[in-house]
Amino acid sequence: MLINVYMTHAAAALKAPRYFFSSSVCVYRDMMPGEPEMNEDQAIPANPDNEYGWEKFNSERMAMAYGRKYGMKVRIARFQNCYGPEGTWRGGREKSPAAICRKVAEAEDGGTIDIWGDGSAIRSYTYIDDMVDGIYRLTQSDIDKPVINIGCPQYVTVKELVDTVTAVARKKINIRTVPGPVGVHSRNFSNERIYSTGWKSQFDLQKGIGLTYPWILKQVKRNQAIEPH
User: Which of 110, 113, 93 is nearest to 101 (CA)?
Assistant: First the structure.
């Protein structure tokens, strides 16, 4: 919260003409698979499932308030699970596509990896090139509603994510389900508003993982080569 307060206040004090805030679809409530997609305005009445979502929601409102008071053109993107090469791939802070890529890269063909929960949770994974393109189009636009969802319209289960990674890796991998933080069942959100800027997702999961897995495999091999035996 303090980071967002200081950044928004500093931008206004410096008379920045435009201000971008990276938010998250975590502002939406926990949804069930198959529920109708939510548009940006339907985040209200707010009911995020965790404090991270509340922090993002409050920071969105603060940025828009500063925009009205100081004449800044505020643009806000709600992200959904960004991934790609050069991202965090280990240490506990990585997103699930990177974590699964790492586990598969480390496993022998025919080996077993652990996943949290039963693999039925549904997610949308957005490749980094699509995310950057969406941010650029949004910040350069004069769209009348400044809050926009940016995410790949392809919904997949965690199990399907594992299947995609193993297909790219050309490995047969067994899954062991273990207790752990699974998060929400699903978040179904509309991209109609970002489509009005001319943006369209160019990377489905197969294509994105096809570019991400080789990079993570390279990091795993490099790390294994330098670790003491």
Answer: 113
| Structural domain boundaries, residue 214 | 17-223
Q: Is residue 58 part of a domain?
A: yes
Measured CA to CA, the distance from residue 191 to residue 37 in angstroms comes to: 9
For residue 45, is the peptide bond before it cis, meaning its omega torsion is within 30 degrees of 0? Answer: yes
- Active-site residue, 52 included: yes
pLDDT tens per residue across span 11-26:
999 999 999 999 999 9
Whether 228 is in a domain gets the answer no
Regarding pTM above 0.70, the answer is: yes
Q: Are 175 and 219 in contact (CB under 8 A)?
A: no
Q: Answer whether residue 107 is part of any domain.
A: yes
> Taking the chain, what is the end-to-end CA distance rounded to the nearest angstrom?
43
From the candidates 6, 28, 52, 127, give the one annotated as an active-site residue.
52
What is the C-alpha separation between 94 and 88, in angstroms, rounded?
A: 5
